[in-house]
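Sanity check. The docking grid for NAP depends on where the pocket ends up, so I'm generating a full predicted complex first rather than guessing from homology. Inputs follow.
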Amino acid sequence: MYQIIDGKKISQEIKDELREKVEALKARGVKVTLAVIQVGDDPASSVYVGNKEKACAYVGIGSLVYRLPRETTQEELLQLVGQLNRDDQVDGILVQLPLPGHIDEDKVLLAIDPQKDVDGFHPVNVGNLSIGRPGFVSCTPAGIIQLLKRSGIQIEGKECVVLGRSNIVGKPMAMLLLRENGTVTVCHSRTKNLKEIARRADILVAAIGKPCFVDADYVKEGAVVIDVGIHRKADNKLCGDVDFKSVAPRTSAITPVPGGVGPMTIAMLMYNCVEKKLAIL
Ligand code: NAP
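Predicted complex below; grid placement will be based on this.
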C-alpha cells in the first residue's frame, strides 16, 4: 500500500511552527512584513495574492498588498520596487507573475533587492543555490524537499529524475536534490527515451505542465512520485502532470493533486520571510 504525502497537513505544520516564531519575534518588538505587488486583475493571480494575504495573517506577518491597474507602466512598477527595496520596514518583496505583456518580467525581477527576493528568482539567489551558499530558494521546490523530509523519505544516494527544466521549478529542484546528495537527472522536451530514464527514478518529480502525462509506464515499482503540475479539467476538477489512478499503486509514496505540492508553495514563502528575519537578527 502506498503512502499519500499530505501537503495540506505538512504545510499547516510549517505555518504553525512559523506562527510561534513570529509571536516570539513580536514579543521582542520585531515585526516581519511582506510586500506583494499585483499588476492587472488576472483572476488566477487575484486568487494567489488573496491566499498569500491570508497566509500572512495566519502566521502573523504583516502584508502590504499593492493592486495596480493593468495600464501601470514598467517605469511606475520599477519605481515602486525601488521604494520597497529602500523601505527598512519591508522584509520581502514579491511581484505576482505573469505581468501584462508590455512589462519586461526579467527587468522587474532583476530590480528586486536579492536580500528581499523571497521568491528566490533573482540571479544572485539562483547563483547562491547553485554554488551551495545561503540565500532564498524558489518556494515550490523548497516545499518539495520539506514534503520528502517530513514524510521520512531519504534523498541521499537516491536516483532522482526531474521532468522539466523551468527556472522556477525544474532547475532549482535539481539543485536542491543534488544538495541533499541525490543523484540527479533532468529531462525536458528534447529528452530521448523519457520513459526509460523516468523508470530509473527512486524519486520522480513531474513538472512539465501536461495534464496526466506521466502514466504507470514511467514509474518504477516502489518509486516516490511528486506531482508539481496543476490543471483544471473540463469537469472543473483539478489534476496534475501524473495520472494518479494508474500511477499510485506502483509507488511507495505519491503526492495528490490537489493537496500535495500546491499548499507547500505559500508555506515556504512564509518560511522565507520569517527565516530571513531570524538570520539577520
Ligand atoms: P514550464 O515553465 O512550462 O516548464 C515545463 C518544462 O517541462 C519545460 O522544461 C519543458 O521542456 C518540459 N516539458 C514540456 N513538455 C515535455 C515533454 N513532453 N516531455 C518532457 N519534458 C517536457 O512549467 P513550470 O512553470 O515548471 O510548471 C510545471 C507545472 O507545475 C505546471 O503545471 C504548473 O502549473 C505547475 N506549477 C505548480 C506550482 C505549485 O505551487 N503547485 C508551482 C509552479 C508550477 P523545454 O524546456 O524543453 O521546453
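Relevant for the grid: The chain is about 40% helix and 15% strand.
Also worth noting: The radius of gyration is 19 Å.
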